[in-house]
UniProtKB/TrEMBL annotation:
Residues 310-337 are annotated as: Disordered. It holds the Pfam family Glyoxalase. It comes from the Archaea. It comes from Halarchaeum salinum. CDD domains: PcpA_N_like. This is Ring-cleaving dioxygenase. Coiled coil: none annotated. The keyword Oxidoreductase applies. The lineage of its organism: Archaea, Methanobacteriati, Methanobacteriota, Stenosarchaea group, Halobacteria.
Length: 337
């Protein structure tokens, strides 16, 4: 069997939140990411699905959340994506520490990993997140959203995810099958398990790294944990080849599922972390003008006929704006969707 085309890296990461308004306020206003899509969980339409990204929703920049208010508090441990790291321009970590002080964000002292400065912090649900200072390339593919944070400091997509695994070896084989290459191993400070961190690099520029640490730390899904990580398989052919390769390793990928903004295949890797393969198209601007991304509740496909029912179950939310006001959902525009 021919090797599949290597994945360019992370497409998006989806996490579990508690309160939807708190989630919006933090990720839009405090961190300065753009709400590029306000929708629903397509498997549980009584729950929002928020997508935060760069100004254009570029693949590799999209952090998404299911705000399941009645779920328990989660616990990060083995069989999970334990850390999510974002890229920020070199020299901007002083700005972010000052901003975290201003907004009351819980953060730790910086650490050095693989020659890079890392600022660990937590969102309001306790989700472990990091900012990594990097030199941006001349052909940087991300487009910063500057409504709350200036371009010189703005988050520029994913840097990496960290997997905590009881037995990393089978997953390492999987990552290499997906086209990631081992770039180094080191003992780094700030890692709860206190063991060696091994880094793998994908073919792209954004969201290119996956770090693996062995741990037997108990885990529990809930608020403040990652639901799944999606990797880019840009075309349907890329995705089909990757699905075949994954299946040949004894894993059980789903058939392709239409998620409206991309087409997806899901499977659990050997330690139980939920992986997704996601196409590049159609993209977040396929059903809204680029200037209006996130401005209205978008209901994919079959759900539009249930708009009245679905809207009645969702709590009211307001979108932070730089003027200190909040944008209420446009009832007339929603009705015309």
């Amino acid at each position: 069997m021919a090797d599949p085309n290597p994945t360019p890296g992370i497409h998006h990461v989806t996490c579990v939140a508690s309160d939807p308004q708190q989630n919006l306020d933090f990720w839009v206003e405090t961190l300065g990411l753009r709400l590029v899509k306000r929708s629903i969980n397509q498997d549980d339409p009584s729950t929002y699905h928020f997508f935060f990204a760069d100004a254009e929703g570029t693949p590799g920049t999209s952090m998404t959340f299911f705000p399941w208010g009645d779920m328990q508090q989660g616990k990060v441990g083995s069989g999970q994506v334990a850390r999510i790291a974002f890229r920020v321009p070199e020299g901007s970590l002083d700005y972010w520490e000052a901003r975290f002080d201003e907004y009351g964000v819980d953060y730790d002292e910086r650490v050095e990993r693989f020659g890079e400065s890392v600022l660990p912090f937590r969102d309001p649900d306790g989700l472990p997140v990091e900012l990594v200072a990097v030199d941006l390339p001349d052909d940087e593919p991300t487009v910063p959203w500057t409504a709350f944070v200036s371009e010189e400091h703005a988050i520029r997509g994913f840097h990496s995810v960290t997997l905590w695994l009881t037995d990393p070896d089978p997953t390492i084989d999987l990552l290499e099958t997906m086209g990631l290459e081992r770039v180094g191993t080191e003992q780094s400070p700030g890692d709860t398990p206190g063991d060696e961190r091994t880094r793998f690099a994908a073919a792209g520029e954004v969201g290119k790294y996956v770090d693996v640490l062995p741990t037997v730390e108990a885990s529990r899904q809930g608020h403040g944990t990652v639901h799944h990580v999606a990797f880019q398989t840009p075309t349907d052919d890329d995705q089909a080849e990757m699905r075949t390769a994954v299946r040949s390793m004894g894993l059980r990928p789903t058939q392709q599922i239409d998620r409206h903004w991309f087409r997806s295949v899901y499977f659990r890797e050997f330690d139980g972390v939920l992986f997704e393969l996601a196409t590049k198209d159609p993209g977040y601007a396929s059903d809204e003008p680029l200037d209006d991304l996130g401005g209205r509740l978008v209901l994919p496909g079959k759900f539009e006929d249930r708009r009245t029912e679905i809207e009645a179950t969702l709590p009211d939310v307001t979108i932070p704006t730089p003027e200190g006001k909040s944008e209420q959902p446009d009832a007339e525009a929603d009705a015309d969707d």
